[in-house]
Every structure is written in C-alpha cells, then in structure tokens.
Write a structure and sequence with these properties.
Helix content of chain A: 40-55%
Strand order of the largest sheet of chain A: 1-2-3-5-7-10
Structural class of chain A: alpha/beta
Strand content of chain A: 5-15%
Number of strands of chain A: 10
Largest interface: A-B, 31 and 37 residues
Number of domains of chain A: 1
Largest sheet of chain A: 6 strands, mixed
Oligomer: homotrimer
CATH class of chain A: Alpha Beta
Order of helices and strands of chain A: HEEHEEHHEEHEEHEHEHHHHH
Number of helices of chain A: 12
CATH topology of chain A: 2-enoyl-CoA Hydratase, Chain A, domain 1
CATH architecture of chain A: Alpha-Beta Complex
C-alpha cells in the first residue's frame, strides 16, 4: 500500500491545529509515496504538490511525467477536491520548458491526453473536476506562466514572483495556452505588451494586469492559500464542478486554439531562426539557474549571434 | 391619480439647489405613490428607487413584485431616462433571495418576462432603454450581487459595501446571471475565486477585480452618483439607447445562458444536499439580520450538519 | 531620394548613446521628408511619428491623409518593425475628428481601405504587421481615444493625459471602433460609464479601467516607450506578427462591427438632433483649443440650445 511521502524539510508547524484536526486523513492510499519532481502532502480533501525539480524547476520529461501521474491519480481519488501547487525553490516555481527536450516532454504529456502537447495537458487541468490553486514564489516564465494560468486561481508572493511570456524574443509564440489566457484576462494591449516585450513583470504589475488573482506579502501568502483551499474543500463537490463547467464554457478557449498555439510553438522551435536564437541563448546561460535570474536582460542580447 | 411618495425621512438637504430647480417635476403621474418595498423619488428624468424591505432587504415575493412594477412603469414613462437604485438600510442593499420562497418570487418575476426566473428579470433590466445605476451601501450577496451586476453601472461605499456570490457553499451555482457577468468582468481565475470561495469581498477588492465601477468614500458617493445620473439624463435618449444596444451585443450573455444558470440554481435548491445545507444555514441564523453580518463565517460551518 | 525630416525642435539629447549607436540608420529612403501633420524620425527598425496638426491636432482631412500615407509607406519599408506615435502638442494628442469635415476625412481614409471610414483605417492599423505604440500626452477624446485604442499598446503621461469617449453627449455613438475596444478591455459597466457619462478620465483612472496599459510620470514615460520600442525591434518579425495575428483572432472585433459603428456615427451626425447639438457645441467653443481644455464641462450645457 502506498503512503504519503514524508517530507522532513517541510515546516509542519505551518499547519498548527488544522494539521492535527485532519491528521487522521494524512495517510492516503491513492497518492504514491514518491514522485521524482513533486513532493506531496495530502490533508483531508486538499493535496499540496510542491514542485522540486532542481536545479531550476525546468519543465522537462521528468516533471511532465510526474504532473501527468499526479493529475491521473488525484482525479481518481474521490476524497480529493482541491490541488495546491507550490515550489520548493524560492527562486523558481516553473522556469519554462527544457528547450533541448521538446519531443521528450511532449511524449510524456501525451500519456494523459493522447496528444503530444503541454497545451492540452494544461487545458486538461483547467477542465478537471479538481479545483487548482497556484501559490507562486519565484519565477514563472513561458510554460511556467502557462501552467499557473491553467490553474483555477493563482496567488503570488509580492517579493519574489516574476512573470514572463518571452517566446517572441526567440521569434516564437507561446505554445502552452498562455496567449489564450492572457488576452482574455488582460485584454489586447496588455497581452501584446507582455508577449512582444518579452519582459519580466513583478507580482504587483501582474496583479494590476490580471495575470494573477492577487499579489501578497510573503508572510501571509501561505496561510491565505491554505485557508482558501480548506474552505473550498468543505463545500459540496457538485457545486464546485458545476461552477467550473459554467465558467469554462465562457472563458476557457476551445481545444483547437490550444492545439494551434502548440503547433505554432513547435514550428517556431524547429525554424532556423528559432534554432539560432535558442542556441545563442544557451550560449549566454539560458537554462542555467544563475543566468536566468535576469532572463529579461539575457534575451535583449540575442541579436548579435 | 398617483403621486410620488413623500418620504419624510429622506434627507432633502442632499439635493440643495438642484432639488429646488427640479422641484416642479417631483410630482409625476407615472410612478405610483406607494410601493411596499421601494421608496421612490423622481427628479426630472431621473428616478431614485430606494430599496426598503426590512428587516434585511431580502429579495422575496414582495420586492420581486415591486421591482417588476417599477420597471414596467419606469419604462413606460417617456420622461424618464435614468434609474438609480439605493438602499434605506445601511447594512444591506439586497441581501439575497428568500430561499424559503423561491417559487413565489419566481412567479412574481414571471409577470415581467413570462418566465419564472429572476435571471431573466435582471437581464431585462440590463437590456432596458433606461440607464441604471446602483449606489451600493451595505451587503450585496448572491442575487443582491446579481442585481447590481445587471445594472449598467455600480458604485460602492468603501466603508460598508460587501460583495459575495456564495452559492457553492450550498452546493449550488449562481442563478441570477452573476456567473455570466463575473467571468466577463474579471476573468476566469478571479471569478472562480469569488464563487468557489464563497467569501465576502470588500469594496476596494471588488473594484480591483472589476466587480464594480469604483469604490468611493461615504462622504462623496451620493453626490457622485446623483451628479452622474443628472449628467446622463441631459443627453439625448437615442444615443444612450444605441450605445447600450451596441455594448449589450458584445457583453451581455445570451438569454439561453441566463436561463440555464437559473435552472441549475433551481435544481441545486431542490437537491437533497442543497436542501440539507440550506436547512443547516437557517439553523445557524441564515436569513437573519444579525447572523448575516458575517455570512462568510457562517457558511464555513455548514459541513457539520 | 527622400530623407528623414530633421526636426530641430526635437530633443536629441533624449536619445543619448542609443541615438549615436543607431545614427547610421537615421537616414532612410522609405519615409518621405515631409508630412504636413506628422514629424517623422526613423531610428533603426523604429519609426517615431509625432502628430503636429495645430492648433489642436484635430483629425481632419490633412491628418487622415498623412496617416494613410504613413501607414502605407511604413508597412512597405521592410526594415521597419515598430511605429511609435507621439504628439508635439503637450495638451492634445488627437483631440477628435473635425466634425465640419466628416465626408472629407472619410474620403482620405478610403484611400487605404477602400471604405470611407476611419474605423476601418484604425482597424487596419491594429491588424498591421507593424507593432504600434502610443505615447500619450494631452487629450485623446472620441476618435483620439479610438486611435490610441487601435494601437497595440498605449502608455500615458500621468500629469497631462485626458481620455473621453463623449459621443453620447451629442446623441451619437462612437464610430471609430472605440466602443468595440472599450467593452472588451474594461467590461460592460465601465464601458457604459465612460460613454454614457461623456466625462473626462485622467490617466490613473484610465489605467485602472484598462483603457491604457499604464500611466507613467512625465519624467519616465518617454524613456520607457523608447526603450520598449527598441527592445521589441530586436526580436524576429515572424514572431511579432504571429503573436499579433493570434491575439487579434481573439480580441479584435470583426470588420462588420467596426463598419456598423462607423455607419451609426455617420447617421447620428446627420440626424437633426446630432446636428443641433454639434451646432450648439460649436457655438460654445467646441473645436477650439481653449474651450476644449474642459470639454466635459462644455458638453454638460448643450441642453439649453
């Protein structure tokens, strides 16, 4: 029988009385003990999944595989209602996809949806019966941003969260559904600014633009998200699902649009210009932890390759 | 012949010179002297309707009946252009529907639209030739929120206004069109947060999320709304109507979606889970003035029934 | 051979090292030396077009003609990627159309799109391969607002920018696409407030409502826009165009809606009520620089004509 991973580095104190209250439910057969890139903690009807894919939480084949397994198992666990995503890395939530392994992570995504596309994997999450909340500390760029956009709600740490959708710096378009979400959330002009500038946006500006629900100070974010998750988990599932369905019917873009964006991203990555820019970026430190602390600066210099 | 109700408790001083200027028009044949739950005051082309349904401005059969009559008569009064809704209760604008009289208030609504649904009553208001403004002091939850969302504009008192769309706490979906409006106004993630959390939102957060036009301090709100109403009333009606029509063509959800939401709400209210949660809430003080001052807290506890 | 206009009043110091860096590209054969109402400055892949149509940057036949020529030539210049619009008048960016020359400026617009409508001229700009940025100082009302709404991004000077869509004060509807954009950017209630009130909105409120990307202080706006324009201009054009196309597919209203709004505006302007209101406004100083400093006040008084 599987039991929950016990994460000794986890701050158990965070949970206080509620943790004790729900203690009898912590052990659960449905969630496997170990994911390579996700640390799990189930408390009642809430599952916390902390992304832990060092050195910088790149979305490569391993994280894609684990996300697929997590979603499959969590959806099958009828005791679960709410799924909270966090990161064990204070600087990176999900940095972006591993551009050297596009085919590989797409194949992992296909195990959930039948199509080799993280756009459809993310859209599956948006359409899931589970309520998903992203607690964002650190950077979410490109597919990282698209992942949190696929979640039902997202709250970001004011001091550390950084947002970007920088594909146009490579001559590419966002391929994971971010374009679809950003235009609907912030309108034409702000979505164009976000993408065409390939700039970093801090949490306050992301809140102003509607990219996230709210920016919050570090000392309240965790408690807020936990409290929100537990509150929602007390409500009947039928209502949660019905509301999600009705909202998605209005605001979640059609599958065809996600698929088309995904295809355009793939074409851009195979294009000589895209390849050349990706190579220039890698030479300047792209996909390394230190260099991406200021990715916006790095991307301004790809022209000279 | 009917004349306007003279409301002695009304602060006539508010109107100052303008009141005197328009004094000769205060008497009007079109608006009946007395509505049980609405206090009327007509000044030129502007009609002020103050909701007064003690003890807490529940939307039950009486208020539904009066709203229907008001709308019918106001639309038939060719001298009227602008309709301003306010509340005589500083803590409650419209609290929500009377859940013990769903069939009754729906039958009242049917007298306007032919369908037993307040969603269609509210949508009728959005599509009306009249320009509607809500001046929100106190609580607007569930159908209260949906009523102000149906108005063309809404301005809220920063110190007192409270917003919620808490149907999912009962396993139900918003049935009065609020879901349609909220998703279009604030996007998928914030609309999901609002509904799935069943939380109270203050006026500043409601403004940030786009739920209202603006939050304003108590000492300026009334003057602002009155001034805005008079300004609009000076413009030719043809232009006002044409703009509303063009805007509604883009942003007002189809009738079918309002009808479907209304049906889902009705189904949820008849469902055993919904019935059980409603009963548990009533036992804890739901639909009483005092207990609903903190409805968000009350709703967190329905699980233990 | 044509060369760039040398604008001696331009603050060359603004450009600093970047100006020197790009100096060899300042001369360009594609952009004509002189437009009557536009001062041009090309720097690399960025073209700055400063609107200079004294006394108050009215959009009449001359400015419409020059905008058409500029767009045609800029789109044909394969070295150009980004087009920045500014104003040489600190109080007026584009005031609005010249209501005494509607047929004339429409005929100029027709030279680009084949249809006598500035709505379609503006929509052409939104659909252009060029990335357009409006740096807004001073007033943009009616077609002025609609022009900046047609740009891909817009940043406004906090101290001076004023926004309005006041056509309903004349009994008319916005005819240049503004209604389409405003509803999608700020939602039903705020768009109705903007139009039905015919009020002036400052830059901070315009930012809050999503009318603009951001309001910025005068001492940073110019540098920000220039830096943004140069940054975008470094990225491959294919990606910029693909992103614009995908965004426009979601958020740019259909041609038929622009055409219909344009027709309604024309009908309103020919209507006796519209004619009468326009005449009353002209008698009160409408279309004069001084009186329009407070156009919102002027429009409140048209009733007494």
């Amino acid at each position: 029988m599987r039991t929950l991973s016990v994460d000794d580095t986890f701050d158990h104190g965070d949970f206080g009385p509620l943790h004790k209250l729900l203690g009898s439910e912590v052990a659960s057969p449905e969630i496997p003990k170990v994911f390579e890139t996700l640390k799990m903690r189930k408390e009642g009807a809430v599952l916390f999944a902390d992304i832990a894919a060092p050195p910088m939480n790149l979305l490569g084949p391993a994280l894609a595989r684990d996300l697929v397994s997590l979603i499959q198992q969590a959806e099958a666990d009828i005791a679960l209602k709410v799924l909270v995503f966090r990161s064990t890395d204070p600087d990176y939530f999900i940095s972006h996809v591993d551009v050297t392994k596009i085919e590989e992570y797409r194949q992992e995504a296909a195990k959930l949806t039948g199509e080799a596309s993280i756009a459809l994997l993310f859209r599956h999450l948006s359409a899931s019966r589970l309520v998903t909340i992203a607690q964002i500390e650190g950077r979410v760029r490109a597919a990282g941003s698209e992942f949190v956009l696929a979640c039902d709600m997202r709250f970001a740490e004011r001091e550390s969260a950084i947002f970007a959708q920088p594909e146009p710096a490579f001559g590419m378009t966002p391929g994971g559904g971010g374009l679809q979400h950003l235009v609907r959330l912030m309108g034409r002009a702000r979505a164009l600014e976000v993408m065409l500038s390939a700039q970093d946006f801090d949490a306050d500006l992301a809140e102003k633009y509607g990219w996230i629900n709210r920016a919050m100070p570090a000392n309240t974010l965790g408690d807020f998200v936990r409290s929100l998750a537990y509150r929602i988990a007390k409500f009947p599932e039928a209502g949660l699902v019905a509301v999600k369905d009705r909202v998605n019917a209005i605001a979640l873009a059609p599958i065809e649009d996600f698929r088309r964006d995904s295809d355009l991203f793939g074409e851009g990555a195979r294009d000589p210009e895209g390849q050349s820019r990706i190579q220039a970026a890698l030479e300047r430190g792209f996909q390394t932890r230190h260099a991406e602390m200021d990715l916006a600066g790095l991307l301004a210099d790809l022209n000279g390759h």
